[in-house]
Fold each of these.
Amino acid sequence: MGKKAIISGVYDTKVGALPESTCMSLHTEAGLGAVADAGLKISDIDGLLTAYSFTSPQLMLGGVFAEYVGMQPKVSASISMGGVTAGLMVHHAESLVRAGICRHVLCITGDNRMTGLGERVQAVMADVGHPQYEQPYGMSVPTAFAQAAQLYMHKFGLKHEHMAAVAVNQRANAAKHPNAHMKKPITMDDVAHSKMIASPLRMLDCCLVSDGGAAVVVSAADTARDLPRRGVEILGMGEGHTHEHIFMAPSLEDFGCKDSAAKALGEAGLRHADVDCAHIYDCFTSTLLICMESMGFYERGQAGVAALAGEFAIGGKRPVNTNGGLLSYGSSGAAGGMFHVVEAVRQLRGECGERQVRDAEVAFAHTLGGIFSGHCSMVLGRM
Amino acid sequence: MTQAELKPIPVPDSDSKPYWEAANRGVFSFQRCRDCGRAQFYSRSLCSHCQSKNLNWESSKGTGKVASFSVVYRAPTAPFAGDVPYVVALIDMDEGFRFMCNVLNCDPASVTIGMPVRVLFEERAGSPQKIPQVEPLK
Ligand SMILES: [Zn+2]
């Protein structure tokens, strides 16, 4: 393999309730936005990767998008692996440019999941459960993630106040992002008294449902000199896939993120302590804490303590989810993970304004799909 | 009651037919690999540990422990809304496999990790299919 790939362009749309939006409008805005950010034209893009849509399911979403905007990519694929998809798209794009198959690969995610699904969203999400061995038991997505959280409380001293600290910090971060879905400040008390959804998860432990889209352009290393903006290098990537359904998870304590993070950091030749800002998939507050421990950022039982001590704050020891994350910035299907990638790139470019982490040189982004099922980690570096 | 108001009913396929038929006879069945000796749930055409097709059906004694659980307050779909709060748990059976079910016949607040349970078979409206569940082992 040749030199490292770069992320040459990023874009995220407004998020929240966007009643005029469609899957295609969000794809178009995000895709063209990322291409323009890279200083490129659609005709420069020779690779296209798309994810999936719940509101406008397509057999070939990539084909539909390419036709709509009028592009004929050399390489096109649609990846459907739930929340981990954004990371996988970047991983595949990286492989395509490093192998010399493509010069510029556009990776687009987006869905109008909030206004497009409305009340149906919980039922649609619950459909991910196994039709014979989970759905007959009334398993919701929070219920499935709660299994690991409950065990963590029992075994490693995870407390709800640790989880609440994650939610409060991320809401404060979202308030500093012009596009964030939820900016109204919340307190520890608000989280503690929010409606119980599936114990120990309360409403404010759960991610949002938003309309929105995000895209990145992954380019060959030698294109960096032509970029209008500071380039961001993909220093290392890794995946980990252990199961699909939570009852089949080989462990409720360690997940595929353990391998994905080790591979990404190993490829980058860096250690956890080298990471200046972390952008971790946060479908639930507990998910983020459990993954950070499984990935080795903290000893068992210590991630929550660190969150409560303020380490995750933008000015803290280890800033986490500076855009507010899925909990407060927005969660729009596969775009949820892509928002993390976009924010990581912006941090390394120094474009985050009052959210900026000082001297951010190394960012770590992590996406997760299914119920802790599939994981993708990436280490990004300022060039 | 219309179809839409019923809880999801498992539709057995060629992999799972023996499992669901056994449930209707009051037997909680699982597969064990004759080559590597490991138990597996759910049933399939090969062993997920060693890929052998040399599988044997066994009947569980029906006892196990709660590996983890959650008390559900917001049901995912309307047919479960009348049951809240209800318990969704992962059960480690004594034979060495894990499955998901509800913990019935108890106060949800009394369920704990490690609690001993036993299998029972729930009958549901609108279907002759019996559903494996657990209750506290007294
Ligand atoms: Zn075997």
Amino acid sequence: MNSGIFHSTYKADMGLRHTYLEKARWVIFAIFLLAFPFFANRYYLTLANTIGIATIGAIGLNILVGYTGQISLGQGGFMAVGAYTAAILTINMGMPWWASTLVACVVTAIVGALFGIPSLRLKGLYLAIATLASQEIIIWIVTHWDAVTGGVDALVVPAPMLFGITMSSDFNFYWLVWALAGVTALLTANLFRTHIGRAFVAIRDQDIAAEVMGINLFKYKLLSFAVSSFFVGMAGALTAHYRSIVTWERFTVDISVLYLAMIIIGGLGSVRGAFFGATFITLLPATLTNLGRSLKSTFPVVDSILPFIQQAAFGLVIILFLVFEPEGINKMWKDIKDYFRLWPFSY
Amino acid sequence: MQRDFRHTLNSSPLNPGDLQLNVEHVRLGFGGVTALFDVSLSIYQSEIFAIIGPNGAGKTSLLNCISGLYHPQQGSITYHTGNAEHQITKLKPYEIAELGIARSFQNIELFRHMTVLDNIMAGAHVHMKAGLLSSMLYWGKTQREEIKFRRFAEDIIDLLEIQAIRDKQVGELAYGLQKRVELGRALAMKPAILLLDEPMAGMNAEEKEDMARFVLDVNEEHGVTIVLIEHDMGVIMDISDRIAVLNFGQKIGDGTPEEVSKNQDVVHAYLGEDEDANPVKQMNL
Ligand SMILES: Nc1ncnc2c1ncn2[C@@H]1O[C@H](COP(=O)(O)OP(=O)(O)O)[C@@H](O)[C@H]1O
Ligand SMILES: [Mg+2]
């Protein structure tokens, strides 16, 4: 029986994965991820790819909101910056998709840091309103700067190619997006075991004490905006290359709210939580649609009211989560793990 | 139990007795309220300097001026680090922290959702240099830095006898332990001056005794200068080298415990009319 975790060296104690069980779970998860595309049909591959993009975006948002405590409603806008930058560079300058993606990440990081400046003066709801303004400003620019963004018309991005292979096919894109999601998760998990990550969390928990401990609030808040936006921009750029069509409608404030729901339901301030939330929020409407379809044959009326049921069910699930497990799916996962760690003596 | 410290907690290059902090004619007001009138005092390396006075006297405000949370309207605060002399009156709190002034707060201000260990590690922030990219890669250099400061944090954990709770979230801990962790977090800065705002308030006798012992350890073994606000006159008379007395924002006396306990102004103003109930006199110094 494993009654607790002990380590003989600081290096081991400071590692990311601690127990054999934990390592075993990771191996199983990795095998699942590797095997999945060989068994899944196109529908499930599309879902998996959507989850992959959402995971990257949600980890990015969680860095800012969950770890640093800076509430943001600008997610959609920042994703738009990433998507449009990648699309424009590829369309107009013929940049390869991977280069335009990288530039898009950097550009979004800079834009994010700029729109993060108000966070020095504003907290909580006031900051939420300021980031909402960034969201609207970005979308306004996107829809009005016709010469560059094509205005309200969609941009069509050429298919991303690598050594003659089309990367945007569902099967190929799967490898790309999940490799990037893995890298994003690893980089973020690493960041939060170093002094920079602790500075972010310190700002969230007690900003005055953080400053008195020598943390430059200006620098670290903007850094958090930049790092967060880097990954959010990546999610945007991947959306552009995967869907090959970029329109502003994909990046409205609805998306900002949806991503906030992901990290709240998944677990604030946790990489794993961002993944859980992205999975849940992507699968929920798909499941509801499938459920509706199968009910349609028996209850034809379902068809006409399905969209409303979907919206209501979506809202209901979120409310239930907030009421019964405010710490999110990640907390449920921890509880389950703790239960089995001491199993069969779990009382 | 105590193992030898592999690290010093004191980053000040001064010799004991050197002038370290000079507060001159500080005036601080908030709208109509004046919290400090023309307060001057000098603090010397490696002493324990106590600030006493009734509630609302301006003690916390004075610490806030020193650590940069408040900026006085008049006067200056000069901080000496051997070869340099810093005007810290207008500096930001993080700049003052980088110069080596650490503190704890009257109402505990820990990072509630972090573990005890992470709180202490966060206290060492000013000494940690890893950049963003190497932190995200957790490359050799960054990992070595983290491990090095982890060892240092363990020294502090041993000193404060909080081994058993190192992985607990501080928000879950009892009040007395939280006060201890807050001391630990400040110590992780390797302070040249440590400002403690009522570190023993609300503690029972045993906890107070422990805390006093830790403060003395840090002062005697590491030579860290301590500026201490405290109401318990027994502790104050026992451990401080010099005392300043504030009343309604004014300094009404300072000196050694003995001098202060004989100062008529102090006895009168601070201890009220009823001189028989004078705890300073009862100390029988
Ligand atoms: N931020 C502030 N805004 C307004 N008044 C303040 C502020 N901080 C302190 N004061 C006032 O300054 C005076 C001294 O307070 P303080 O320094 O906290 O006293 P002490 O720590 O000695 O009990 C009090 O009258 C208090 O109300
Ligand atoms: Mg006070």
